[in-house]
Design goal:
Length: about 400
């Protein structure tokens, strides 16, 4: 069992900024937005974060998640590469976000939070509601209309997990509809009226990324003497990519151990390859801290559904590692992602969510460009309710 997690933000200190002054934020100011435990973590410079004993028991109930070799998928591709799958679909919420959800719910409960509000395209809301119910916390999820239309089962599953769901549509004067920012704005506005409520953003920040690093730490143990030549993760806000690749990125930094890390992204939201370094926020109310990182002005498509890859801000360590040449990008269309997911489903009898399809598209591309090698990729979510027809 993993006892401590990686704090990748220790490699890019000073990235969390006061939303008004744009200077590095103080702990006192950050605690106005975050519960004290999460605020302290957000500004921690420690490279390793111990897992609290009570939370370790929670993780032990479903971790480690399985790792298997996708031999049928590799055979269908006609490749000499070995493809290893880390299966985060085996969590209580059937997606990797359960790791962050239990971590956040535990710390919020310890700090006396009774209600959490958040934005979601679906999976994060399911994970947070599932985790929060264990700690007696109410969750209110704000989800955009496009996500509901694409995955109508998400609302039902969030409600079944105990959440209250609010569906929001674009403002009439909003010409650049960004679903996540819109949902975040609504959640922030609501939270300001509730004294024991806290708004938690479901991506990007250190408090969300740290618990995801358990994925790559476990995979490294499970692989034993097998060393991945390529590690693939999809990237919206960066949690999946940093989760599966974090352990290998730190080895490259600390020991010079080479691993090719590939960031699979959507052509409608090429956040890493075309994002610009700047100071970005997830709301426009100067409430949540800004991050010094890569950002995009808007999605490159109208009301496009691209699963969990629609973030126009990425976690600061992704920007840092990409700028340092430790991460390279591979950008794919919706059609390529669905095709790869469909092939994986036929050959491995596993249905995966669309964001995992982008990762699998990157695996297909890697298998075509190299005659042999070991490829590690994460199934970040199952595809319940998805049809690729």
């Amino acid at each position: 069992m993993i006892d401590a997690l990686l704090n990748l933000s220790a490699y890019c200190p000073g990235s969390v900024l006061d939303p008004v002054t744009r200077e590095p934020i103080t702990l006192e100011r950050l605690e106005q937005a975050l519960p004290p435990s999460l605020a302290a973590l957000e500004l921690s410079g420690e490279h390793w974060i111990p897992i609290p004993d009570d939370l370790r028991e929670v993780f032990h109930g479903y971790r480690p998640t399985p790792l298997f070799e996708a031999t049928a998928f590799a055979q269908a591709l006609g490749t000499g590469c070995r493809i290893f799958i880390k299966d985060e679909g085996a969590t209580p919420s059937s997606n990797h976000k359960a790791n962050s959800a239990f971590w956040i719910a535990y710390h919020c409960a310890r700090d006396g939070v009774r209600e959490i509000t958040t934005e979601t395209t679906g999976n994060w809301g399911i994970a947070l509601a599932t985790a929060a119910s264990r700690f007696g916390i109410q969750v209110i999820c704000f989800i955009d209309e496009a996500s509901v239309a694409a995955r109508p089962d998400r609302v039902r599953l969030m409600e079944a997990a105990g959440a209250r769901v609010e569906v929001v549509g674009p403002d009439t004067d909003d010409d650049s509809f960004d679903p996540l920012v819109l949902s975040a704005n609504r959640a922030v506005s609501y939270t300001g009226k509730r004294p024991r409520s806290r708004y938690i953003f479901g991506s990007v920040y250190t408090y969300f990324i740290v618990p995801q690093t358990i994925v790559g730490l476990e995979a490294r143990q499970q692989l034993g003497e097998v060393r991945p030549d390529v590690v693939v993760g999809s990237c919206g806000g960066g949690a999946n990519l940093l989760g599966i690749a974090g352990a290998f990125l730190t080895e490259a930094i600390e020991y010079g151990t080479p691993t090719d890390v590939v960031c699979a992204e959507s052509e409608l939201c090429p956040i890493v390859s075309k994002g610009r370094m700047g100071e970005y926020s997830i709301d426009d109310q100067d409430f949540y801290p800004r991050l010094r990182t890569y950002g995009l002005d808007h999605l490159l498509g109208d009301d496009a559904y691209i699963g969990g890859l629609g973030s126009t801000i990425v976690a600061a360590p992704v920007a840092r590692f990409h700028a340092d040449g430790l991460i390279r990008t591979a950008t794919f269309s919706d059609e390529e992602a669905r095709s790869a997911a469909e092939l994986f489903g036929r050959t491995q009898s596993r249905t995966v969510a669309l964001e995992t399809g982008y990762q699998l598209a990157a695996v297909v591309a890697e298998a075509e460009r190299r005659p042999s090698g070991n490829i590690l990729v994460n199934i970040s979510s199952t595809g319940r309710g998805i049809s690729y027809a």
